[in-house]
Design a protein that fits this description.
Vps26-related; 6-stranded mixed beta sheet; Immunoglobulin-like; 2 domains; Vacuolar protein sorting-associated protein 26C; mainly beta; 316 residues; Arrestin-like_C; 7-stranded antiparallel beta sheet
Length: 316
Amino acid sequence: MGTTLDIKIKRANKVYHAGEMLSGVVVISGKDSVQHQGLSLTVEGTVNLQLSAKSVGVFEAFYNSVKPIQVINSTIEMVKPGKFPGGKTEIPFEFPLHVKSNKVLYETYHGVFVNIQYTLRCDMRRSLLAKDLTKTCEFIVHSTPQKGKWTPSPVDFTITPDTLQNVKERALLPKFLIRGHLNSTNCVITQPLTGELVVESSEAAIKSIELQLVRVETCGCAEGYARDATEIQNIQIADGDVCRGLSIPIYMVFPRLFTCPTLETTNFKVGRVPWSPCPSFTAVPGCCAQGLAHSRCSVHSCSHWRPGGPTFSAKH
């Protein structure tokens, strides 16, 4: 068995906030003693941007001007050149999560076209005849919760054949009416999106009713911006031909790594959509229709549920 490196972060959930102390231990394990040229630990946070395939070639300046954005980068020398004994050696470390005045620790976010990631990397340098050892470990950064009282902003929505977005032959659709409401369009990201909907009438038998959570990411430069919407998750809230006039609860938890509070910078944005969404549903066998409610409100977040209906924002 050769020598191995491992990084163990003190907090089990690996979640930290700006200004806190990131701590843990580096573990060196091996049957025999190992000679090394030093052990270093690097904390790094980067924002990686990319354009979707449909935008390739449209914004050539984007590729020339935008590189991975470095949020934080700091290295400490943990151990000077020497030798580690056989067995297990644990070396504790502490890293203050502070950035320069012109930088911000954005919340960890794993998107399709915008990716914000924070990592710890341990490097053990060895002689020319032995391969250097490297171990990388990701930790999570959450934004500091906002102070002040949260005020909910409820909104009602209605779905009919006239409000559908993706239908070519509207006249062939059966008549239906779905009403509902969201308890708030201004959501706390640590709390679920809640509300209810009611199928008032439908000529055709309903197969299912689903909610689709969509993220909207914008990236680019002064030459132009590309905005893309991608699905995060899809949950079924009703199965089969539901009873008419029955209230169906809406309850959706935001997946933290794939959603984040509103984020807007010079080169990228997550959220702020000028249109409004609502639950997707299947009203006819083989036909998935997207409903658009006639309501609109300001959006402050990356978490939008789609197809059409009230938009909402998520924040701490």
